[in-house]
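Researcher: Going back to the complex we discussed earlier. I've cleaned up the inputs and rechecked each line, so this should be the final set. Can you rerun the prediction on the complete assembly and write out the structure?
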Amino acid sequence: MKTKNIMIVGVGGQGSLLASKLLGQVLLSQGYDVKVSEVHGMSQRGGSVVTYVRYGDKVYSPVIDKGEADLIVSFEQLEAARWLPYLRPDGQIVTNTQAIDPMPVVTGKAVYPEGLIDKMKAAGARVDALDCVTLARQAGSAKAVNVVLLGKLSHYFDLPESAWQEALTALVPPKFLDLNRKAFALGRDA
Amino acid sequence: MMKKLMLGNVAAARGLYEAGCSFVSSYPGTPSTEITEEAAKYDEIYCEWAPNEKVAMEAAFGACLAGARSFCGMKHVGLNVAADPLFTISYTGVNAGMVIAVADDPGMHSSQNEQDSRHYAKAAKLPMLEPADSGEALAFARAAYEISERFDCPVFLKMCTRIAHSQSLTEVGERVLPPLRPYEKNIPKYVMMPGNAIRRHPVVEERTRSLIAFAEETPLNRAEAGTDSAIGIITSSTSYQYVKEVCGDRYPVLKLGMVWPLPEKKIRDFAASVGRLIVVEELDPFIEDHCRNLGLSPEGKSLFPLEGEFSQNLVAEKLGLPCPKGAALPDAVPARPPVMCAGCPHRGLFYTLNRNKCTVLGDIGCYTLGAVAPLSAIEMTACMGASVSAIHGFNKVRGEESEGKTVAVIGDSTFMHSGMTGLANIAYNQSNSTVIILDNSITGMTGHQQNPTTGYNIKGDPAGKIDLESLCRAMGIQRVRVVDPYDLAACDRAVKEELAVHEPSVIISRRPCALLKYVKHKPPLAVDPDKCRSCQACMKIGCPAISMKNGKAHVDDTLCVGCGVCRQLCRFDAFSGDEKEG
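Model: Rerun complete. Updated structure for the full complex:
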């Protein structure tokens, strides 16, 4: 099997490390060779962050390059647009519709582009957009955005739902498990 | 045994555990930190955060001298700090094995330079192993102890961001604890005064010759066959993965797991078996230069850059192979640089320094972000401790003109690492300098490690606690005062008064990092749009929770932690929230 490439992108602090851990765990349970590459440190302070998840029979490079991603999962619209060049021509974007102004926009040095979802579609990407913040609040906490998004993402894998549930159970502290199960279900059913 | 998905650093820690390492001393630094954090999760290993890398390396040396396998870990620039012991413990050698992990950061994801640590192995004449994935990080950590004890020298385990912070499948084994080796007094071996060191140097050179012979034979360096020997590639670490990703089994590859000392015959034989010889390595032409010294004519930096990280597309392009391309948006996508978090205690202090038009000499930590717009407060950042040392020289040269407006800013952990000696110089050679210690009660940027001022050790248990006020006074600074950086009026007063006096002074800006779990947050503030006059005074602090929406200030309630700094800037009382505070 040819190596599959998934990028998880967002703003530092949004919880993308848990999302990549969960995804890695699910793929590992299916018997794939898996590599997950993330960046710690300065960019986690509100900067643009990216995690690469690759799986297949044999994975070499830990990173994904331009034109290679089968799937980009984005916690924020502008970040989906930033990493668009990494999507392969017929690739899929799954994005939270949340917009977070980066500091150059806050200070008036730059403008947050309008109509990003349509522009990404016009550039050839398939885009599945979802208001994950509202659903996460429904589940009980705005912090569950990452798990809502994973619920949505789970549609794009030919895997039994039990694999996802097992990974959630393995990685989420018991006292937050109900909340995260709810968030996952809301994302999956949306 | 089942394979686990493990971060490179976690696998390296597992390797230490399995090899029977029983003493770890490190200073945190991205991307090396998790090796020590993970090692601390094994009860069988004594682990600690040392005040800096030099202390950590010397402590680990003491432990190996005493007969236990020991370890210290650091980032590339940390090795500069530890270079002093490094070059001499190469002469003394070890008793039990000693391993030094050094993690480079090509691309500078979280560093101030992208120096290539391999030069240290060559300069200090020590072997260096370089894993290419998590499985190798574990196996090489184990192998490093065998080499250390067999050749009587510390051994480097060289990581880089993509190996340290990538997870791959790793097979784990059991811990084998070697018995404590006897310690024997051996003055000629361990006392490096000239008469003894002169006799040790030839031992080091002989050791290198033995290690070269080892490099010829060890499976750490392996030639992989290819179907097309028109090109042959010598590579290591993450570059190996990019080469294999692009070329598969097409071209023969010499994969080097030990990057110093390098084999000679093995490389010559490989070169003779291929057409074009290409060296693929990030940063400096280290392996390439070695090939040239052997009289070979490889291509390397004539194709590949000296700067930044490589990737599969880069390798494909340089080898003339097809590489995929993606689409881009017609719009410019605004950059998203890192910023101080909402509620960061550093923000109020940097706002004060900006307002007072201070010249700010900075240091290494989260607070380096004080240089970013709109605060734009920091004017120099070089290395750990440089703020405190440099302000002394700066003020000595410019005199009263700069003494009244220049400050040094340094974090609590960085002050313990390398700021104290700079302050000793200020106290001793008497410059009228103002040093601000940004005490957020943790080592922040690297992800919350304890330090000698926090009162807790690496396991979170109570530990010795150094009192910063007493320390500064004991060092001869008479004027030491503490302010709360959430209180802008108090910050302004402290900065103005300490800059005005004609003697050295220390301001401790004290409030715990807003991300610490024990820090209780207040409810988020909200802006009353009827009261907001759109003056944007609250935008001057660069808080990620505040933006302008429909011409009025707006607070993002998912980010705001209610610190109240913005409310102190509002002349129209537009921020609601806990009115009794602030």
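Model: Worth noting: The radius of gyration of chain B is 27 Å.
Researcher: Good, that matches what I expected from the previous run.
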